[in-house]
Amino acid sequence: VVGPQTRNKINKLFSSNSSESNLPLPPVVLNVPHINSISPDVVTANPQMITISGTDFTTYGNKIIIANDNDKGIGYYNSADGKTITFPFVSTFAEKIKVQLSAYKGTSNYQAILSAFTANLTGENISVEDGVTYVRAIILVKNAGGTSNSFDIKINIKSLLQ
């Protein structure tokens, strides 16, 4: 129970607070995400857990894009700290090759066929280092702040086809 003066004061405070709450909120500005590193930077399993480290990832809704796979978005992933995103990477390129080589899998000459096949891969996203054939995957992160810089990882194609 309050008296008339206290009631007037409460009403005055309440009405002044409610008028302030009708003011528009300032817009939320999100920064464009940036990738600093990816670990591991060589994929040897399908799927393989990959961690992207960087800045300005959002809590929800970070779309991982493989740019050299027709800009295919592979899913939306969370970042609890705004600095890391972990996701299962699957090489669709390796999966397509597995289908082509499936008729030879389990044969005595599969390793020779696999070696010859990977040695003859060519293209702008193929490199050979110390006798190992790698396929380059270009990773980007897209969220409400924009699209990040690109970052390359290498896929050891022969290890995925074993």
Topology at a glance:
Elements: H1 4-21, E1 34-39, E2 42-43, E3 48-55, E4 62-66, E5 72-77, E6 84-89, H2 92-101, H3 110-119, E7 126-129, E8 132-143, E9 146-147, E10 151-156, H4 157-161
Parallel strand pairs: 2-10
Antiparallel strand pairs: 1-3, 3-6, 4-5, 4-8, 7-8, 8-9, 8-10
Radius of gyration: 26 Å
Element-by-element helix/strand order: HEEEEEEHHEEEEH
Strand content: 35-45%
State the low-pLDDT regions, or none.
Answer: none
The major sheet is characterized as: 7 strands, mixed
| Structural class designation | alpha+beta
Quaternary organisation: single chain
Number of strands: 10
Mean pLDDT: 85
Helix residue percentage: 25-40%
Q: Could you walk me through the main structural features you see in this protein, from its secondary elements to its overall organization?
A:
With 162 residues, the chain is an alpha+beta fold. Helices cover 27% and strands 35% of the residues. The chain has four helices and ten strands; from the N terminus they run H-E-E-E-E-E-E-H-H-E-E-E-E-H. It has helices at residues 4-21, 92-101, 110-119, 157-161; strands at residues 34-39, 42-43, 48-55, 62-66, 72-77, 84-89, 126-129, 132-143, 146-147, 151-156. The strands form two sheets. Strands 2, 4, 5, 7, 8, 9 and 10 form a seven-stranded mixed beta sheet that branches. The chain has a three-stranded antiparallel beta sheet with strand order 1-3-6, with no helix packed on it. Strand 7 and strand 8 form a beta hairpin. The model has no long low-confidence stretch (mean pLDDT 85).
